[in-house]
Amino acid sequence: MSAAAIDADPAVRWTRDADLGARTSFRVPARAAWLVEVADADALPGVLADPRMDDGLLVFGGGSNLLFAGDFGGVALALTGDAVALNAHGDSDGDGETVIVRAEAGRGWHDFVLHTLAMGLSGLENLSLIPGTVGAAPIQNIGAYGVELDRRVHAVEAWDRERGAAVRLAAADCGFAYRDSRFKREPGRWVVTAVEFMLSRTSQLELGYAGLGAELAAMGLTAPTPAQVSDAVCRIRRRKLPDPALLGNAGSFFKNPIVSSAQADALLSGHPGLPCFDAGSPGMRKLSAAWLIEAAGWKGHRDGDAGVAPGHALVLVNHGDASGAELLALARRIAASVQARFGVALEPEPRIIGAHW
Ligand code: EPU
User: Fold this and answer.
1) Catalytic annotation on 182?
2) 101 lies in which domain range?
3) Is 349 known to be catalytic?
């Protein structure tokens, strides 16, 4: 008998002892006791009531923010619905300038960004080429080139396992912070089913991030369109960040550490080149983890097939046959050396399965 079980509901497909390795961007060996693919969010209550859920639930997006350090004994759930609709709830702001776009969780993120640009809408161009799905985007509050997702989110639709109900959370109720949200902090509770974005018909571009303006200038663009900003972001990312299709990785492996202003000032006096940013809260500063890791000598380092990208010190890469445990061991050595050298604790950005950081 094949591993895939025949199921009564055509929107639901269960696979026993599922190989998830190829579905993760790190492409390390990874298995789940079950994978359930759900094409229609209306089928979720039945799926979540299944006794197989008793062994644990892992909501699975594009697999681009996960590191499997061991197998998962429960159910990996992937929502595959990917429809996009404009003003799905009839809730435009009335002036025609702002548009609410709703996308189902299974839509590929970059594909969705391109779709909004093709519709003539701006707001997501700085977030081009980020791997993963729409449903995963609010969980870690993705961000790049001066724009964090939460600034564009109107509402998040989710199944609340605690209340056993479909809910629609306004952006203000999602607990968004830097690479963080209440969905991430309460991992067993929420299954994000769709995200609604507030986008604009006129271009209000964010070009302040270091490097983005320079890229546009190099492209000979002084008054870029949102699609051209997207192109510039793609060019920067392709140059700096390894393509997960070619070299397994999960983007930034560490978050940029947020420290007190006093600690930042002390570090800056000894290391004037350390990039230091506004952390969005008074008395705190955000440091560049990539700079700290590079200064500690790790950029391009390789332990067997587990390595640090030669082009960006924040990205761990699988050169071929690294296991998740090997990548995790390398990450721990990097964090320990940054702690010893700079007194700064690094925290991983991806979710680690089968081990604790
Ligand atoms: N830098 C180094 N060494 C390196 C790479 C960068 O010293 O190897 C320095 C750069 O010179 C620059 C600073 O670090 O001054 C910042 O570099 P970059 O612009 O590449 O951004 P980042 O802070 O390292 C963050 C996000 C990325 C996002 C970029 C661009 C986090 C954890 N990472 O990286 O997001 O693409 O900004 O906005 O916040 C991701 O989350 O997976 C991700 C790739």
Assistant:
1) no
2) 84-200
3) yes
- Domain finish residue from 144, 169, 200: 200
Give the residue from 42, 148, 154 showing the smallest Cα distance to 101: 154
User: Is the beta carbon of 294 within 6 A of some atom in ligand 1?
Assistant: yes
Greatest CA span in the chain, whole angstroms? 66
Q: Which atom of ligand 1 is nearest to the CA of 211?
A: 19
Cα–Cα distance between 199 and 152 in angstroms, integer?
7
Confidence (pTM): 0.94
Question: Would residue 179 show up in a list of annotated catalytic residues for this protein?
Answer: yes
Look up tokens 């700096």; give the residue. Answer: 240
Is 8 inside a domain boundary?
yes
Calpha distance 56→337 (Å, rounded): 34
Structural domain tally of the chain?
Answer: 3
Q: Please report, in tens digits, the pLDDT of each residue of the chain (357 residues total).
A: 344 555 678 899 999 999 999 999 999 999 999 999 999 999 999 999 999 999 999 999 999 999 999 999 999 999 999 999 997 666 555 567 899 999 999 999 999 999 999 999 999 999 999 999 999 999 999 999 999 999 999 999 999 999 999 999 999 999 999 999 999 999 889 999 999 999 999 988 999 998 999 999 999 999 999 999 999 999 999 999 999 999 999 999 999 999 999 999 999 999 999 999 999 889 999 999 999 999 999 999 999 999 999 999 999 999 999 999 999 999 999 999 999 999 999 999 999 999 999
How far apart CA 282 and CA 266 sit, in angstroms, is: 17
